[in-house]
Model the fold of this input.
Amino acid sequence: MHRILLIALASFATLAQAQAAAPATPVVEVAAAPAIRPDDVVLGKSDAPITVFEYASLTCPHCGDFSTKTFPQVKKDWIDTGKVRWVYRDFPFDPVALKAHIIAHCGGPERFYGFLDVFYAQQRSWFRNNPDESVAALTQLTKFGGVSEAQVKACLSDDKLSKLVVTNRQSGDDAGVDSTPTFFINGSKSTGFKEYDEFQKLLAAAS
Done:
């Protein structure tokens, strides 16, 4: 395994305990929004008045709930209408999540959000404590999206993709992210799962 993955795995193993102990109660505070980078995969119009950064882990059940229960309506009402541009940042908390995030990038930017949707929707079916078993289950899902087992193996050995995920994770650390999901909405930091009604109030406040 490449050096960058070994470093990441060592740090994520420790942080997994913090994720498990993180309170479910949302906390809202003012914080500086991260800056968009050229390698970010962005949904929505570039001139949208609201920019949202989401830091999430693919093995986080609260992130899965947000993806399946809240985000579809946010996308319909806010992103597709030009009010919000959305930036998802990888924030893996454990070795399984690290590999899952790399695989999510494996199909390129055009498939990235589609893979996120599928991985979160099927989270209970592919997530195992054993990374190899999780990768095998995820590979079955990526095949439906046109990414073969050979491509997944190549992606997991790709230093560029590993570096992208680790860079996203580090940007969250630098911004004070310590639980998932965490959102930055035009500079306002909000943590924890939220139903659509609650989340849209945060978006409206940033308008």
